[in-house]
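Protocol step 6 of 9: fold each sequence in the batch and record its structure tokens directly after the sequence line. For illustration, a two-sequence batch is reproduced in full.

Sequence one:
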Amino acid sequence: MTEPTPHRPVLRLTRRGRLVCSGLVLLVVIALVLLLVSLVRGAGTPPEQQQASTAAESAAPEHDGTPADSDEGGTTSAEDDAPAAEPTGEGTPGEEATPTDDAAERTPEAESPEAGGDVEMVRSGTVGAGTWTVAAAGDAPTEGVLRPYAVRVEDGIDVDAEEAAEEIAAVLADERGWQGPADVVFHRVADPAEAEFTISIGSPPTVDELCLPAKTGGVWSCRIGPEVALNSDRWLHATPTYDDLAEYRAYMINHEVGHFLGHGHASCPAEGAPAPVMLQQSIDLQGCTPNAWPAGEEG
């Protein structure tokens, strides 16, 4: 006689159990979809880009400046609208910065020796008011190719705007200056908006800001695009390479305006020769003798 098959208990899920199982299945499906999307994206990204992306997360990029020109050592360059900027003997060498010339010329060219290197510069600690006094217009020339410019002086730096403007005008009009070689006539206007370039005399912190991206370090001057920024410490105290303050100011002006006119830096041609005005004389004469003028004593 056959024994009856024992009754097997049937597993029945409660409503709660069914909900839990459905939730687990849904989570697994979502995880698989996310994994698939991640793999597809990774496969489409070049290895170089993946590496760059990782590097960008671990290190912040440094500020890239446009070249500037400066005769005092500026560190950057900026193109004239980027003309080159040159520190007028005041900055950290960059693209073409010449101390006491144009630290940045918005045409990449800025150079200014950091902290002046071994050369001891006067650092007054002056901080200007951040406001400006614009000098009055000069007499308009009757002939020649006019190059209008403006002069402004930061308030609170012990430099008189009108006196500085007259000194600058005399330098620009000097027969040893750029008017002959460049075949132009400079005319001072009262509105910077009407000028091709502006010569600004400001305190060290202000000039540092004007010269960016050139690094003028509170010491140098520069030229950035249409802005010729002259450090007030250099205007009032020059650098150790010059004994004559008036001659040094003439050099600052001619060097930076030279950058505006498109001239780059130069080197000393021979031991004992007059230094080219586009040499960064605020930093080092390279064996030459100081010379503030485009046209030397011998023409």
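Sequence two, same batch, same settings:
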Amino acid sequence: MAETFGKILRPLLPETKKIEDLPLAVTSDTKRDPNNTMKVIAWRGKKNLSVEDMQKPLITDSKDAIIRVTSVAICGSDLHLYHEEFSGMHSGDVLGHEFMGIVEDIGTDVKDIKIGQRVVVSAVIACGYCEYCKKEQYSACDNTNPSKEMEAFIGHRCAGFFGYSHLTGGWQGSQAQFTRVPFADINLLPVPDSVTDEQVVMLSDIACTAWHAMELGEVKEGQTVALWGCGPVGLIVIMWAKHRGVKRIIAIDHIPKRLEKARELGAETINYDEQLVIPTMLEICKDGPDVCIDATGFRYAKETIHKIERLLRLETDATSAITEAIYLVKKFGNISVIGDYYGLTNHFPIGALFDKGITFRAGVVCVQKYWKLLLKYILDGHIDLTKIITHILPLEEALLGYQLFDEQKNDCIKVILKPDIDYFQHKQI
């Protein structure tokens, strides 16, 4: 799919530097230990995951660290791969990008990280010294993604990501017992023993992504905020919005358990299966929200036309939530998009976006920009991320975790996998 849309988009893009001319600081091709294996969750096709043995990773570059994974989440964006709706997956690829663990080994040029430290790992792989990293725009790193397809698809390459296809570099994922982390000094955050994995593992991705929504939307004290999507990221958005002192936050979803959790966290809610979003919002918030946040993503089509066009591959992305946000947000209001979007969409209301003077900002989180501040908030007791965790399972039960999360069974909101816990003694909370 990336190659197809790359061909469509390429003539419309300005000339960029050829990929072969761009220096790469590191390779995702990892050295392996022929004498030691580990368990991994391997992707074998649509909704087809397998627990398999793989040779353990070894230090490949002098700035690497090897992490023994102690906790790894199933992220909402992992479901795009699970459904085979994101390009670049190869059979046998290891999934997972939201994780933490213990440093088992380091390269000779690692300066700030020590063997034995407990660390959170950034899902976004940065080099720390390119033009973008110097500006703390880590998700745009020039040096961690060798994908020619990415450059053809969007005009540039973005940063590499763990376990997220060869479009983002082909890096081994973290739903495994061990993972190699390049540029360890910038991509690892040491955490104290006074906190549990469950309190901090989401700093790897979604806790920072939710904060990124605050930053993109410039959320301030006293504002009214509307949120589309009460999955794990959206629920943390509610936490951070309350932390920032918003007057009201109105959350939109259709899954009863998630709406219930949103209310527990202090949000008003709209169930779009029972209420029309635009008139209901204008009834309870006459002038419209100051800020609208989209935490849904490209797979979630509400309107029949988007469902049909996605089915026929006439578009890749449904923008139902964004469309509602554009119509509802106040004139000269802000829209913040942190849900994953991927390719092309139809029926985008660009006229309303223009005429209302809306500030529209979107993008992948720059984890390393935020995680030290957010760790402090966790340590000071300002936020408890464990409130959204519903299932803790051994790594070998990843397929069950994916099924529960994907189908919202057993009131599932957030799944954490534990490579170290016994297969028969797993814990559900």
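Proceed to step 7 once all outputs are recorded. Observation for sequence two: The chain has a mean pLDDT of 91.
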